[in-house]
Every structure is written in C-alpha cells, then in structure tokens.
Amino acid sequence: MKIVIAIDSFKGSMSSIEAGLAAREGILRAMPDAEVVVKPLADGGEGTTDALIEGLSGECIEVSLTGPYREAVKAHYGIIRGSEGASDMAVMEMAEAAGITISDRRDPLTATTYGVGEMIKDALSRGCRDFIIGIGGSATNDGGTGMLKALGASFTDSDGHDCGEGGAALSKIESIDISGLDERFRDCRIRVACDVDNPLCGENGATYIYGPQKGVTGDMKEGLDKAMAHYADVTASVLGKDLREVHGAGAAGGLGYALISYLGAELIPGIELIMGAVGLEQELEGADIAITGEGRLDHQTAMGKAPVGVAKLAKRHGCITIAFAGSVTKEAGACNEAGIDAFFPIVRGVTKLSEAMDTETAKANMAAAAEQAARLISSCLSKLLA
Predict the structure, then answer these.
(1) How many CA atoms lie within 13 A of 270 on its CB side?
(2) Helix, strand or coil, per DSSP, at residue 63
(3) Residue 349 burial (CB < 10 Å; 0-12/13-18/19+)?
(4) What's this model's pTM, rounded to 2 decimal places?
C-alpha cells in the first residue's frame, strides 16, 4: 500500500515536515510494509518559504534589504538546488522585504517594494532562474514600481527627475525606461502564489479593497486609484500591452501587475503552485491514501485551503483522503463535502492549550492518531480480503 502525506504546518506547534514525519511514524507502527511518502505543504502565504526549504532540502539565504519605509531589514529566502541540467529555484515571500508586519507605520504614499527587487536580484546573482514568490501580507500600494527600480527600471517625471517611492510617485510618472532592466530575466521562469482575483484599478482594485489596511483613508482612495491607472496607462504605452484587468493584478498593492507586465510572471493559486513545485501529483499516481491536515479544520478549510487542495488532487487519482487537525469545529463537516473523506482531531483528552501546542506533545499526538487510523484501515482490508 502506498500512502502520501502532505500536511500543512500547525502554526506555533509543528512545521509541515514535522507533522508529516510524525504521521509517517504512526502509520508504520501499524503498517510496517507500507510505502509512505512525506511531502511539504503550504498555501503560498506565510511559512511557505520555510516549508519548502525544509521539505525540499533547500538552503536558507539571509540577506539585508530595504524595508517598506527605507529602513534596513533582515530577511531570508530559500534556494532549492536543481538536478543536473535544471535551474536552481528561489522561493521567497515579498512580506520579508515589504510586509505589513515589519513596521507599525501605515503610509501607502511612501511604502515601497524596493526590497523585494533587491531580494530577487540577490537570487539572480546566485544563479537562480526559477522563482516562486508569495505576495501576501504587503504594506505597499506602489504598483510594484519600487521592485522594478531595484531591478534596473526607471520612472521619471515631466522634468526627467526620478519620481520617488510609494503610491505618491505614481501620478508623477511620465516616462518609463526599461533598458536597464536585468537581462537575466529573459531566462527566468517566475511563478507567483496569488489567491486574490482583484484587478489593478477601480472599486474592486488594489487601492479600494486592500488599501485601507495599509493606511489608505477615505479621502485618499480616489486620488491613489487614479494615480495607479495613470501608471498603467504609461506602462501600456511602453510595453504595448495592458494587463491591468488580469485577475490578481491588484495583489500586494499592484505588485502582481508589475510581475506579470514587466517580468512575464504567472499568477497561480498558492496551493496549486506549491503542490506542483513539490511534485505531489506524481506521488499520488498509484497511491491508495492521501493524508493531509492543518492546525484547525473549520468551514474556511473547505473554502480552498491547503488540505482541500490535497483532497481534490487525490480524488483525481482515486485516493482516499484523511485529515488530521489540532482542533475541529462544528462547521468542519463542510470539509467532507469538499473532498476529505474523514477527519480526526489529534488532541488526546482534556489538556491546556500550551500543552497541546508543545511540539513534542503534538508530534506524539499526531503519531498516535495516525497509528489508530492505519490500524483501522489495515483491519478493514484484512476483512475484505479474507
């Protein structure tokens, strides 16, 4: 029997790989002859970089970057070394350089994605030509112009002067020069984890929908949105294409737009992108059971979070899907309708939250729960085959 495990992290308790290995340990206690494969799982948001570094034996690269308000920040990304003949892959999260949690300040007029460009450029200099970039949790509304400036593009006003940084710069743009854009991008593949479908501009765009959490006030919205549209107009005249209406262009304050327009990136749903990157579908071919889960299973899980992504992929290959969670809500039944055949909480008995979230306790609980599920499966198979 082949069992494939892909469990999302239990935040504050177990990493994706720790949870997967614990489940594997429990399964092998009950089914020592089973083939059990563990894959990392993430949804493209916070923790994706670390999950892929750990799960794919990557290298953690620490860098000093420019933060959203030009402050110095320490950040990290991962490099997954390619097999012979394949490019090295960089995995990174824009929030490391321009995330909303970096500073208590909220100023969309000055917040910049410049550090994101620095991080990409560092990976380029280390030989990476394949990129996976998560763009959730941004502090910025600059249309990705800061990132592009760090990569060699220039944005000038009617007097030929640099327009500056942040959302305030967008209305000043009269000329865009991409001749200095790093030529190495011609050889790059850039995949962006994007789970929003907002266009760049308008009432459903970057400024109106996501701007308020970044400091955009009611009296700023119209002006900033018009400035974003102006930037898109100039971009279209320079590039000969207008991608402002593409679903996801408005992600991360327009960073999505810059990535697809200037760097030829693909916007892909986060869980789909990560499952593809780790080769999960290939492992599910010929598998019998898929094991997944996350810290908390509820109605939101059923709305497309990582475990349901695994379940849907598993169903294509005829696999039964079982999920484990630290806690399960009354609304978690929706997960069954979304493709998870059965789910189980791993906590054993009444316990304090701090005890349940202790890493060693959580791993032991996961192993025990997986063992019992495996024993049931093994017994049922024995009866059926008798």
Answers:
(1) 28
(2) strand
(3) exposed
(4) 0.91
